[in-house]
Amino acid sequence: MKKNQQLFRKACAAMHNAYAPYSNFRVGAAIWADDGNIYVGCNAENISYPCGTCAEAGAIAAMVAGGAKRIERILIVSDGESLITPCGACLQRIKEFSDDNTEIVLSDGEQNFTVFRIFDLLPQAFQEF
Ligand code: THU
Predict the structure, then answer these.
(1) pLDDT, tens digit, for every residue of 45-79?
(2) What's the gap in Å between 30 CA and the centre of ligand 1?
(3) For residue 1, what pLDDT band results from cuts at 50, 70 and 90?
(4) What is the CATH superfamily name and number for domain 2-121?
C-alpha cells in the first residue's frame, strides 16, 4: 500500500476517535516519522475552549514520546467538506520537526491528496536573525 494511503487510513481512524463536541469538526493527523513508524493524533476539545488541542499537536507529541526526531510526511484529514490546512500554531509545530523535504499532505475523505512543503504554508516562520 502506498504511503499516503497508509497514512490516510491511520488518520481517519484517529479522526473517528476525535473529541469535538463543541465544534463538531473532527480532525485526524498521521505522521510518517524518521524511525519508520506512524504516529497519529486527533483533536481533543475542552469545555474551556482554549484548552482544546489540535490533531497535529497530538500526533507530534506522540512522535516525540515514541522517540522519533523528524516528520518525513504528515497527512491531515477532517470530516468537513474539503481540504483543511493546519492552523498557524500547528504550522509552527510542524516546522520544528520538519526539513525542506517534509511533505504536508492534505486529504479530503475521498483520498484526493494535495502536497505542500512547510515553506509554502509558513514562509516567514518565527526565527532569530
Ligand atoms: N483543528 C485541528 O485539529 N487542526 C487544525 O489544523 C485546525 C483545527 C481542530 C481544532 C478544533 O477542535 C476544531 O478543529 C475546529 O477548529
Answers:
(1) 999 999 999 999 999 999 999 999 999 999 999 99
(2) 14
(3) confident
(4) Cytidine Deaminase, domain 2 (3.40.140.10)
111: left (phi over 0), alpha (psi -120 to 50) or beta: left
Residue at 40: amino acid letter = V
Expressed in angstroms and rounded, the spacing between residue 129 Cα and the centre of ligand 1 is 31
Which atom of ligand 1 lies at the shortest distance from residue 54's CA?
A: 3
Positions marked catalytic: 56
**Residues 30, 63 contacting (CB under 8 angstroms):** no
Cell 489540535, residue? 54
- Boundaries of every domain in the chain: 2-121
Tens of pLDDT, residues 80-106: 999 999 999 999 999 999 999 999 999
Query: Does the beta carbon of 121 lie inside 6 Å of ligand 1?
Result: no
pLDDT tops 90 at residue 110: yes
Distance 52 CA to ligand 1 centre (A): 9
